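Tokens for chain A. Residues wanted.
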């Protein structure tokens, strides 16, 4: 008898699940997204990941692993700050919900308390094709062999997602009620990240892709402990979609009575610029679209779900090139310092590191600047412009050099929105560091982030004053904007906000000037 009780399948050694909370919703792509397998095929460099649904048709696939990774990362950022080292952190929300991370010495082998299923999208979903190319920062021309294409699920693609939270008896020295409340708090916090836009999915999400929204929330609770009716109901129909069970729709999962809305700690800090500008009525914008078009012009402006869009990749490329010029002017005798500050903001340049020989301890960092993608409102995009290349010697048209273009033209009502978000990384200090060393590290960390905010403000000024063009054919006057308004916010323990309207500086502009001053070396300001 004692031997039977010690078996891992015995009731005494099971997880003793008391409740199962099933949450379902419809996940809708607000911008195109790429969920790939990491492999290229014969036709596409970055193809999409698909699978066969229950009806035997090929359908878009959003894996549970993708959602799990996004939710775990969000919980760590929310509790400890962006890119914080959470190894060994006790009672981390992500650990309570998903279990310990790989390599954590404190891992007790517990399974995840949250089950996330693969989601199959609507089979009628459209696929968009985009081409990208890396430009040489010096010549502003395409780098050799750096042209690639990527497949995207179009905006509006819907994935029915399903979560199942298991509430068990505590596996630790913690009261059962306290443990279950903590797990529910972690789960609700993770769902908040999905509903408020903090979580994006897929590849190139720092460049505006993969922005999502969720609607049609449904929640059902199965009480399994001492409740034979709910236990049988879960065994018989536990996998049935809640929409077929006539479960009422909620605007937010936290509205369900099983959850208690408890504000959790938010350790994130970021700087945000929400900028609206106009496209001059005498100007135009052309970001080339490689996808299929009804009218086969040679070059047409990029569209997303049939609407003209300003892609985050094109805008970021222009911002990075201008930021490099600014930093080279500030650090004329220290190009390594300029490059280091550029990489800290926009991410490491892998090509440059490979050409120069990557150092053994040299880190590769992803961009901390998030540039959103938005559609252009009230634009004119049905005009075709014919052009011809002229022979400079004869003054006549060159053979086979007649081409047509379909850019976006502006009018008085045309509005273009840009949103930039700079994440502040959590400060990492060695445990053996002295108090003086800690203070110096904090001051250096704050000054570096203030300088990065100042660099973004200089970039905002250049875009606002039409000094920084975006897109292709800027040499013939395309891609220049004029600022209308900007909302600038600093999120953190001491939040601040600034408003710029029609070029008039805000009342508290002195703080913004301090951020710009922090971009210069301290000795240069003496």
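Reply:
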């Amino acid at each position: 008898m004692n031997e039977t009780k010690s078996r891992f399948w015995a009731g005494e050694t099971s997880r003793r699940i008391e409740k199962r909370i099933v949450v379902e919703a419809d996940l809708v792509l607000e911008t195109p997204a790429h969920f790939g397998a990491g492999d290229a095929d014969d036709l596409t460099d970055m193809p999409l990941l698909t699978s066969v649904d229950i009806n035997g048709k090929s359908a878009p696939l959003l894996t549970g692993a993708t959602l799990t990774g996004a939710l775990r990362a969000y919980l760590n950022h929310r509790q400890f700050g962006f890119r914080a080292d959470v190894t060994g952190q006790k009672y981390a929300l992500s650990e309570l919900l998903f279990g310990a991370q790989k390599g954590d010495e404190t891992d007790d082998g517990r399974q995840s308390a949250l089950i996330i299923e693969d989601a199959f999208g609507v089979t009628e979903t459209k696929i968009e094709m985009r081409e990208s190319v890396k430009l040489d920062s010096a010549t502003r021309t395409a780098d050799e062999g750096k042209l690639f294409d990527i497949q995207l699920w179009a905006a509006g693609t819907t994935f029915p997602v399903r979560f199942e939270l298991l509430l068990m008896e505590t596996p630790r020295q913690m009261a059962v009620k306290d443990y279950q409340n903590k797990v529910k708090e972690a789960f609700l916090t993770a769902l908040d990240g999905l509903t408020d836009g903090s979580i994006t999915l897929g590849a190139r999400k720092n460049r505006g892709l993969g922005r999502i929204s969720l609607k049609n929330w449904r929640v059902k609770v199965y009480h399994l402990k001492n409740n034979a009716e709910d236990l049988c109901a879960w065994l018989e129909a536990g996998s049935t979609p809640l929409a077929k069970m006539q479960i009422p729709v909620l605007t937010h999962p936290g509205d369900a009575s099983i959850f208690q809305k408890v504000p959790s700690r938010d350790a994130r800090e970021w700087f945000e610029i929400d900028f609206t500008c106009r496209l001059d009525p005498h100007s135009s914008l052309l970001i080339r679209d490689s996808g299929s078009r009804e009218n086969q012009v040679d070059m047409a402006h990029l569209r997303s779900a049939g609407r003209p869009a300003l892609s985050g990749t094109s805008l970021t490329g222009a911002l990075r090139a201008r930021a490099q010029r600014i930093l080279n002017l500030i650090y004329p005798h220290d190009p390594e310092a300029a490059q280091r500050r550029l990489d800290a903001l926009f991410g490491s340049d892998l090509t440059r590191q490979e050409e120069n020989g990557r150092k053994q301890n040299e880190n590769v960092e992803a961009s901390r600047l998030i540039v959103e993608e938005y559609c252009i409102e009230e634009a004119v995009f049905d005009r075709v412009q014919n052009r011809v290349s002229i022979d400079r010697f004869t003054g006549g048209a060159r053979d086979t050099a007649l081409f047509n273009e379909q850019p976006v033209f502006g009018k008085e009502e045309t509005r273009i929105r840009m949103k930039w978000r700079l994440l502040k990384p959590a400060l990492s200090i060695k445990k053996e560091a002295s108090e003086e060393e800690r203070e110096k590290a904090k001051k250096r960390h704050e000054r570096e982030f203030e300088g990065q905010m100042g660099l973004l403000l200089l970039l905002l000024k250049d875009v606002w004053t039409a000094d920084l063009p975006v897109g292709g054919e800027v040499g013939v006057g395309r891609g220049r904007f004029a600022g209308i308004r900007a909302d600038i916010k600093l999120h953190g323990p001491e939040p601040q906000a600034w408003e710029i309207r029609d070029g008039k500086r805000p009342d508290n502009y002195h703080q913004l000037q301090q951020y710009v001053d922090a971009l210069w070396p301290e000795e240069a300001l003496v």
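Residues 18 and 227 are 10 Å apart (CA to CA). The chain has two domains: 15-255, 270-525.
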